[in-house]
Amino acid sequence: MATAPPASASREATGELLTSPLIGTWRATVSLENEQEAAIFTFHPGGIFTSAAEGIHIAAGRWAATGHNTFAYSLWQILPSDLSGLPHRYLGEVQAMHTGRLDGDTMTSQGIGRQIDIDGNELRRGIVHVRATRFGIHLF
User: Fold this and answer.
1) Is 8 helix (H, G, I), strand (E, B) or coil?
2) Cis before 87? omega within 30
């Protein structure tokens, strides 16, 4: 029978998810092979991750602090087959897992992303790099 972690460990992990300097909104550049995509990342208190890239690529996932200035996150993104017309049809999905580092208002991460077709077949897999800058209250 599995036992629960000590209450102090649970409080510590919860505290990181509520007070981490990673929490906030970031303007990101996502690079995969010869492709680059502009994105907005948000790391929400409690370990929730959301992003929007190139207008239609919306992803959700989870994040966790792994050290003082380090973290990990994973995401899942639906790929529509028709970006200009309605209704959007499901084409497949992207899954990714990253590890990253904070340096003030700059965040970098690297991970593995994979594209999966509608039948669950992996179409491609590659290393993904992210560089992001924190959004402040003053945009201009």
Assistant:
1) helix
2) yes
Apex CA 2: angle with CA 73 and CA 76, to 5°?
20
Angle (CA) 108 123 78, round 5°: 65
Q: Which has the closest alpha carbon to 31: 133, 127, 96?
A: 127
List of long-range contacts for 37-42, beta carbons under 8 Å, 24+ apart:
39/130, 41/107, 41/130, 41/132
DSSP 67: S
Average pLDDT, the chain: 84
Residue 92's pLDDT is what? Answer: 85
CB atoms within 10 A of CB 100: 20
**Which residues are registered as beta bridge partners of 21?**
none
Question: In the numeric block, which tokens belong to residue 95?
Answer: 């899954």
How far is residue 12's CA from residue 135's CA, in Å, rounded to a whole number? 27
Whether pTM exceeds 0.85: no
Residue 21 to residue 99: CA distance in whole angstroms: 15
Residues whose CB falls within 8 Å of the CB of residue 117, separated by 6 or more in sequence, listed in order: 91, 92, 123
Q: For residue 9, give the 3-state DSSP assignment.
A: helix
